Amino acid sequence: MPSNTTKCIGCGVVLQTEDPTKLGYIPNHDHIFCKSCYQLMHYGKAEGHSHPDNLPNFEKKSLIVVVTSLLYLDSMLNSEVKRLGDNYKVVYLINQIDLLPDATSKNFLLGKIQKSFRLNRVSYEDIVLMSALNPYDIDHLKGYLKSFNVPNIYLIGLQNSGKTTIFKALTGNKEALSLPKAALTQTMLHAKFDNLNIYDTPGLYQGGYLHEFFEYKDYKDLLPQKQFNPRNGTLKSGQSLMIGGLVNISVLKGETKSTLYVSDYVKHHITSSDNVENILKTENIFKLKFDNYVTKDYKLVEDKKYQFTLADFGIVHILGPVTIQISTHPKLHITLAESFFK
């Protein structure tokens, strides 16, 4: 049956039959999913998606809902999004809290986020902790959004933060794709929730995430999708924690306790710092490796827990005081902050 739409119902890109190498290609007008979405759905193969350069234009009477994964808090603090609250009502939805162990204090997490937002001058109306996969959280969100009494609600945020999953849950949309792949939504998607206009916008770009280094079929399992099983350890001077072949943390001075939060598919290995290079070159412990590594030293002087966010695939807590060295690809996105949770 011929398509009645000019846009892919999976990602929103404009459909075209002229050039197979460009976005939106379909072999004929019987197709309602572009080639890229079709291959992603059926073969797990991702190609051809891109990132928007700028924020969309918002209607004046709107609520801006910033959806950010628990793993992306570090990036949001340095994003242009944090100034939106100067001109619009802005609510932050901190998604994927279901990744945290059940014993995690949500009040502690919220307090840390509020403190960090104040220090970084982030303007907002409210902060909501939630999981887009929790029906109770979605039901609560529906009532909460209606309480703002505005006609338009925009879901914005970084790539792969859960915007489309929330969009589908609010509106009943069944076609939009919400797989764990960065930059899937290509143009703004629109649907109704009661009398509200809900807009799902393309994910904002963050450099240094795994999609810049590896193919989707290789890295997709490394992105956390279920509750973390924390991996605790003790590292002494001269020892290294190797994380998935992607990040190596070596203790230069002192001793520390570490806690690693990653997908079950991410292997870790503790070894002598002198042995790291040999393992990366000669052994097949890890699924993925980089061709190039650089090192950076960190002197963690205070007696507190520090948090290193590892691109889009994990978090590691390091207890100070200690001096460590991190070895990874020069462009991998890694940030340091005081821990957001304990």
UniProtKB/TrEMBL annotation:
Domain of life: Bacteria
UniProt domain G: residue ranges: 153-206
Pfam families: MMR_HSR1 (PF01926)
Record InterPro entries: GTP-bd, Mito_lipid_metab_GTPase, P-loop_NTPase
Example of a GO MF term: GTP binding
Official protein name in the record: GTP-binding protein
Organism field: Acholeplasma laidlawii (strain PG-8A)
